[in-house]
Amino acid sequence: MARRTKIYEGKAKIMYEGPEPGTIVQYFKDDATAFNAEKKAVIEGKGVLNNRLSEYFMTGLNLVGVPTHFIRRLNMREQLVRSCEIIPLEVIVRNFAAGSLSKRLGIEEGTQLPRPIVEYCYKDDALGDPLVSEEHIAAFGWASPQDMDDVLSLALRVNDFLTGVMYGVGIRVVDFKIEIGRVYDGDFQRLIVADEISPDSCRLWDIETGQKLDKDVFRRDLGSLTDAYSEVARRLGVMPKNTQVTKPTLIN
To answer: Name one GO molecular function term (predicted).
Structure first.
């Protein structure tokens, strides 16, 4: 298939024009970044794993009635998704204290929170994706109060799904972030889960050992990121146990 017109390239993905109107081809790169791209590396096979894992989670959400932009996987690195207008927020759901929450509030990492906490960050790499309140969101018109009610509902439904699925394979969902998009059916607007759900966007710890199976492996130099992501994929049955994830040859 001929290479499509590039729409956008981010730190971990490239977006191309889709084959039909209203669609986008989402390509998963092997690039790994941390600390707002201050730390960078290319991890062979990472894009393949994230493509397959995001497909697994998005398909599961669609099946339980949580709408997403995912349509189908095209190949090992690409998936077809519905075009949508992204709300400029990162929606973070926290079940246990970790990362910036532990630093901000002085809570020991791994402490279970009284209930899931939902936070919002304004999507702007130049500003470091700052934490914002619903007052900021309303004042600057990034989303309406009704939108935010729907965003909160979607975030908590995704949390219920992810925590249940991962608990079943011995993995704790410490926290995760998602993005939300707007789609229009005539004059009717609805919100859907967009971007990706993968170990790049979640903190995942083994329930028994506390071993980290997410991007913190790269952030903190804890070992092989590919091995960690492959372990998540194997537990979920996304990839056979004997699969070796290697970088495929791209055909233009």
So the answer is: phosphoribosylaminoimidazolesuccinocarboxamide synthase activity
Residue 90 CB partners (closer than 8 Å, separation 6+) = 120, 121, 123, 129, 177, 178, 179
- The encoded tokens of residue 186 equal 């005539």
Residue 20, classified by CB atoms within 10 Å of its CB into exposed (0-12), middle (13-18) or buried (19+), is exposed
* Confidence check: pLDDT of 37 > 80: no
| Residue among 236, 243, 203, 245 at smallest CA distance from 53 | 236
**Position 92 pLDDT exceeds 80:** yes
| Spatial distance between the Cα atoms of 107 and 153, rounded to a whole number of angstroms | 26
pLDDT digits over 195-229, tens only?
A: 999 999 999 999 999 999 999 999 999 999 999 99
Number of other CB atoms surrounding residue 92 within 10 Å: 21
Q: Catalogue all structural domains in the chain, each as residue range(s) with its CATH number.
A: 6-84+225-236 (3.30.200.20), 85-206 (3.30.470.20)
Question: What is the sign of the dihedral through the CA atoms of 137, 66, 27 and 183?
Answer: negative
CA dihedral 14, 163, 35, 58 (to 10 degrees): 10
Predicted TM-score of the model (pTM): 0.92
Residue-level pLDDT at 186: 83
Please determine, for residue 251, whether its predicted confidence score (pLDDT) is greater than 50.
Answer: no
Q: Are 121 and 104 in contact (CB under 8 A)?
A: no
